[in-house]
Every structure is written in C-alpha cells, then in structure tokens.
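Hey, I'm writing a tutorial for new members on how sequence and structure tokens pair up, and I'd like a real worked example in the thread rather than a made-up one. If someone can provide the structure for the chain below, I'll link this post from the tutorial.
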Amino acid sequence: MKSKKVILIISVILICAVLLACLSSCKKEEDNNNNNNNIVNTGNGGNNNPDNGLTGDKSDNDYTSREIADAVIAIYAPEDFPEDGLEFFFSGAAENSDNYIEPEKIGNLINKVPRPVQEFDYLDDFALYVPAGQSIFEVSVLKLKKEEVNNIDSLKILLEKRLKRVSRGELINYAPQELPIYENAKVIIVSNYVILLATTDNSRAENIINDMLKSGNNSSLANDDKTIVGDGVPDVPDIEIETENKTESEPETNKPVSMDEIVNVEPEILFDIDQFKTLVEDKPEQDNQPEQPDDSGVRKTAVPSVNVKNYSHNTSFMIGGKCEVGAMIRVTGGTEEIYTGSDYGDYLVEVPFSNEGTTTLKLTAELDGKLPSEETAFIVKPQKDISFYEDNGAYGVILGYNYMSYFDDCLPDYIGSNLINDREIEDLTKRTQKRIQDLRDKGCDAEIVYLLVPNTVRIWPEDMPRRYVEEKSDTLLRQWKQGATAGGATVIDLTDVMMAHKYDEFKIWHKTDSHWSEYGAYLGYVELMNYIAKKFPDAAPRPRSDFEFYNKEVNFGDIYATLGLELSDLCETSVFVNFKFDPPHFNPDYDTGHVNIYDENCIMRMSVRPLHVRVQFQHITESNLKGLKLPSVYIFRDSFEGPLHAFYTDRFSYANYRGMWNYNFNLNEIVKENPDYILYIISERNIKNVLYN
C-alpha cells in the first residue's frame, strides 16, 4: 500500500513537471511570435528568422547589423514606407536569394560605380534596407570588426556621400513627399556601428538603437547636434566617437546653418564703381532692345538681359538670361573664352576664372548681320566656401555649350571610366541566359526586350565642355549590349535613330531637362512598335498624322531646377504634342508645365512635373481598342517611360508597369501573368542599375 502511495506521488510530480515545461515552452513561443509580428516585411526584406536575438542580454556590440536594422524597420507602419517598397540585403545571405547583393552591386549602390567597395573589407557584417524605386527612405547598418575601429570615419564618410548622391531636384520632380525625409537624413556612429537613417521619424529609430546598444548616455545619440547630411543640408558637427583608444569631436565652430541662410545669400560680386562705369553704362531700359545703327548704318545686337549671375564654384560664375533669337553669346576675361549659341533667345553659360586676384568678365551678344552688342561687365574674385552645387542639390550638373546641360552621371559613360572586363560581360550573358531559362522552365515564353535611350551627350558630344575627353574605343553601352544579346535578350538601341533626327524641326531632347522630348519619345515609340509588329501586326505604331507636334515656351526642366533658380529666371522653348485620339490611361497634357506645391504657411516648397507623378508608381493599363490581336507586356522602366507612356498604352492588350527604378525581377509574379514581352525602358545612364540585377 505504501509503495502505491509513493508511485502515485511520483506520478503527480512528473505530471506537474511536464505541465510546467509545456507552459514555459508555450510562453517562449508566444514571446517569439509577438517579437516576429513586430517586424515589418517590406519589399523583399523583413526578418524571416524567428530567433532574431533581441530578447536576450547582449553586450553593446554583440548584435548583428541585421538584428539592428530589423528592429528599426519594425517600428514603422506600412504607410511610412515608400510606395515601391524596400529591398533588403544583408551579409551572409544565400547567393540565389533576394537578400544577396553582389560586391559590384554594393559599389553601384554606394558609389554609383560597379566595383567592390574597399571599405566593406573593414566590416564584420552589414544590413541594407534601401528603396526599390525613386525614394530616400533607408536604414543601413554597417558593423565594423573590432580591430578595424580606427577606420570608422571612412565608413561614416562613405554613407554621407551616399546621401549626397541623392539629387534634391530628382526628388522634387518624382517624389516630393520624400523631401522631409531627405532633409532630416543623418549618419550616426555608436560604438563600432555606422548607421544611416533616412526615415519618417529618426528619433524613434535612435531610441530603439539606444535600447539595444545600451547607449542611453552615449553623446552620439543623446546630443542634439546630430550629424545631418544630404544635398541641400550642410554638414554639422560630427557626433562623438567613443572607442577604447580615442574620443574625437569636431570643433564647436561648425554650428548648424539653416537652409534659408545658404539659399538666400546673394553671391558677392566685387567691383570698383569707377572702373565699372567706364566698362559699361547701366541702361536697363535698353536691355534686349535693338541698338541704333552706327555711322556705317549697321545695327548693333541688343544687349542681353541678365537674370542669373551667381558663383557656381569658388572660381566659376554663371550668367544667364534673354538675348535676340539666334544670337551667339561671348564671354571673355575668364580662363576659357566662352563662345556659345543661345536657344530661342535663352542662354546660360558657366565661366571659369583665375584663382588669383580679381577678374573682369565681359559679356556680349552677336547676331549675323549686326555688330556685337555693348559689353556687360562682371568683376569677380575667387571665393572660399561656395558650396552652391552641394547645398542646392545641383551637385552633378554639367553646363555645356549652346544652352545644353547634362547630369554628370552620364560622365562615366562618356569618358569610359565605367568599362567592365570580359569576365563581367560573360557573367552578364550567363545571368541573362539563366533568367530566360527560369522563365521557360515555368512555362513562360516571354521575350526580354530592352528599349535603350542613349545619353544626351552621346548625341551632342560637341556641346560637352572641352575639359572632358570622350572615350571612343569602347563604351559600357556596347559591352552591355554584347552580353545581353549573347544571353538571348533583344536590345533596341535608339542611338542611330536619335542621331538621324538630331537636326529635325522639333527637338528630340529638352536642353534644360534630362529627358527626351515628346517628339523624341514618339521616335522611340515608332521603333519599339515596329519591332513588336513583326509578331503582332495589329500593334504597329499609329500614323504620324495622329500626332500634332508644336513648340511652346515653358519653364525650364529638371536639370536647371537643381541649380537653385527661380522659375521666372530662365525658360526653354521645346516641343509638345496633341493626341488626335483618346489614350486608354489618360491624356498626358504634356505642356501643363509645373504644378506648385505649398506648405502649411502658403510658402511654395517645390514645383513638380505632374506627368511623372501620375505614372511613376506601379499600375496596370488595358487597351481601349477592340477586335485586335495585341500582345501583353510586363514593364520595368526609369523616368524616360513617362513621356512615352500615352503613345503606346493602346498598343498592348494588358500592361503591368512596375514602379519607376524598381528592377526587382520577381519570377513567380511574372510567370503568373505570363506576358508576351518583358520590356525594359531605360536610359544609357541607368544601364548600371540593371547590369547586376
């Protein structure tokens, strides 16, 4: 009897132990589930690892970059993220996964050069939540190896440069809602972590980082003087960097400077008033008016009006305004004599001058059959701290001759600094072959077609400043075409078409804007649909008579918008189109110009081109034409698709447009739609963005 009682007691004890173990296990699972539910899966990212290590006690630098990045991302709601979502890359991801990033692609992401980033050799690990499209929202975490902590400044500079490569002008045109994120973006250093924060509320992210790294008293997060970087926002003092060996901080003299203080400062133009009066008489009422004839009866060219007179660099000066239509503009006195054409009476020149003493620049206009105009003089001297390009988002603008301008991300293509080697071409071929084979294995027969729009400088190299030398022996464009076509893709290169039409009655390219004109887009439309019509005759392009092209003077475009100019300063006469039919998506109204956007105080914050805003995000169109056999298409694109959009929406029965600049190739989604074509519409300067994608 006694033994039975002992057995019963032991059984009760065992049952209780099992129950307690089950309850403990359930509680642990519940905690893990709750933790996972707080992690937002954005784009291809998110935290798919249930044991993310955030619940245990860790020392300040035991967290992986991925754990920190995931924890930060988890605090934001879906509406905080960009419409096109985020891509997520981290070190150690499987090579075939969406989270793997090649070393070359890291280089393109960070430096806009498809080469591995040397500074990444200093890292223990990294995690990058980066925008899939044209956006600024980002959380990137770099964790240095303890023995490499002395190189932490170079990593900070690297991420600061990444922010500065974002063009404020591009955001104004395509993602104006992102400007507050852009203006508050920052790079912080905590222990051996370098973290880029460009979110809707960075303070929330800093609190999470504080909690995780136990750095509540660390001045790098507790100090109000955070490091803020980005075009349009000047650098302010570096936060303190605390390591075992050193503590560094910037001098207190570098205090934050407001945007108003920078943007509204009038460039200093020094002159001796007596000398100035002898050089040019001030006759504002005669500006841009025909001069009286001299004794020989020959009239003088009108004195150009001057609406723009700014230092653009410490030793260069911009002058722009109106002149007689067809006049040539001459500026002497600088280190280079400028002699350049105007455009429908508009002109803008950039004049380099000596880095010593004062320089007198003399501006005249010259028109065939007339004498040169009277001179207008500008007496300038070298400046010390002109950061106009950086502060106003104009970094990356090249002002050429004949009113032409370029974004300098076309420069590597022009001078050949981005050429790839034979192995990389072969790898591109293999990636293309694999992509096509993956489609075929899943029963999708879609043809991959690239519509390639050449860089402006490829068509007008004569307007590039003489300081740049064109590489003519080889180009990335040719190398990429070689690799892509060898892999089975079709490349429709529009270079020859654009060259054949560069002197047409209508512009094929805007001169103050980085995009082709509506007439240039029409030419691309004809080439594309003529190719598609080989398999689908009903998709042939509409006749020219369905389009009415005309010239109109409008506000300048996106390149000049980055120069910090007022919309009334300069204009451009360019070509627009009326459709003599109803496009199925919408009538683009190309010449409606800019739409002004005001803040809560009724102060104009920006001026955007409504066309790009209307079409840049993912959407679907269907043809409004009945009884025709039309193909379906899945489209990847950059902003060059905008002017093309209304031309070809009725040529495809069904078109799925990915968000602009979102090149994520989702195999399963594409196979599910089973399109006839997978179409990429990209400019030459965006080849780098699809080269490794």
